[in-house]
C-alpha cells in the first residue's frame, strides 16, 4: 500500500477532498493487520481451516484495493497538472517525500529482528525487491510488508507516461479499456499470491517469469481508468444501491471463493471504490468523520510498522511478563500499533513530508534556469 497524493500539492486543481477514500484505507489496512497477527492465533484455537483461509483472502484482497486506490487517487489529483515543464519531476519528488521517510523508518526499526544480507538490503533500500523474478525471496526481506511498496515505486515511476497515454481516450474507449483490464485481472488471476495456486500453464509461467510489479500493474491501470471515468462522467452523486451491492458481493465472494477465482473480487472492489468517491451515502459519511480521517492518514504507517511493533512488543512482554506474553500480545498489539502509527503519522510522516517538499522547492527556485 501507499499513502494518498496530498491535496495541497501545487500540481493539483482545487478539487474536493475524497474523504471517504481516506477513511476506508484504515479498514483495509486493519484487515491486513488482523490476518498477519491473528491467523496463527486463530489456528492455535483450532478454528476451522476455512476461517483462516477467509482471513488470508480478505488481507490479499485489501492489497488489490490499495493498488486500485493508488491509481484512482493519483489520477484524480494530477490529471491536467502534468504538462508543465518540470511537473513530472515534481510528481516524483512529491511521491518520494510522501512514501520514503516512513518506509525507511520501518526498515530501521525492523533491522534488529531480520538483519538481511547485503543484496536483499540494497534491494529493499532502493525499493526494487520485487522487480527480479529470479530472486523471489528478496520480496519479503527485511520488512516483509514492504514488498507492496516496491510495486508502488514501479507504478509511480511510470505513472506520468500511463496518464499521458490514457487521458485523451474518448469516454467509450475508456470504458472498453476498463472492462478489458478488469477481465484480464479476473481471467489472468493476476491478484493471486503464489504460482502454485494456478493450474493453467501460461498463467503459471506468467507468475514465475514476470516481475511482480508488472503482474500487479493491471490493478493500478484499472484504478487510473476509473479515476479518469470519474472525472469525466458528469455524475454528481453515488448510487447507494450499487455501493451496498458491492459490499454484499465482497462478503459473499470472500465466503465462497477458493483458489484462483479470488481474482473476481476486483470487480466489487472497483465498484466500491468508485461509489465511495462520490460521498453522500451513510457508509461514506462514517468514513469521513474526523477520527476515521486521522486513522486513514495513519494507515500507511500502520501497514509498514506491523513487523517491528509486533517484535518489539513480543520482546518486551517475554522479558517482563513471560507467563502472559501470548495473550497480552494478542490484546495489546493492535492497539499499540494504531497508537504508535498515529504518532508516526502526526509527528514524523507529515512534518518530514512538508520539510522535504520545501527543500525540493528551494532547490528548484535556486536552479540556474529559474527566473
Strand-residue proportion: under 5%
Low-confidence stretches: 7-11, 40-53
Per DSSP E runs of 2 or more residues, the count of β-strands stands at 0
Question: Kindly state the mean pLDDT as a whole number?
Answer: 87
Classify the secondary structure makeup into a structural class.
mainly alpha
Give the biggest sheet: none
Distance between the termini: 38 Å
Morphology call: globular
* Helix run count: 14
Count of all domains: 1
Radius of gyration: 21 Å
Overall helicity: over 70%
> What series of H and E elements makes up the topology?
HHHHHHHHHHHHHH
What can you tell me about this protein's structure?
The chain is built from 14 helices and no strands. The protein is mainly alpha-helical. The protein has one domain. The radius of gyration is 21 Å and the shape is globular. The two termini are 38 Å apart. Residues 7-11 and 40-53 have low confidence and may be disordered.
What are the salient characteristics of this protein?
mainly alpha
How is this structure best summarized?
The protein has helices at 19-44, 49-78, 87-114, 118-125, 147-166, 171-188, 201-209, 212-232, 240-256, 266-276, 282-287, 290-304, 306-320, 325-366. It has 371 residues and is mostly helical.
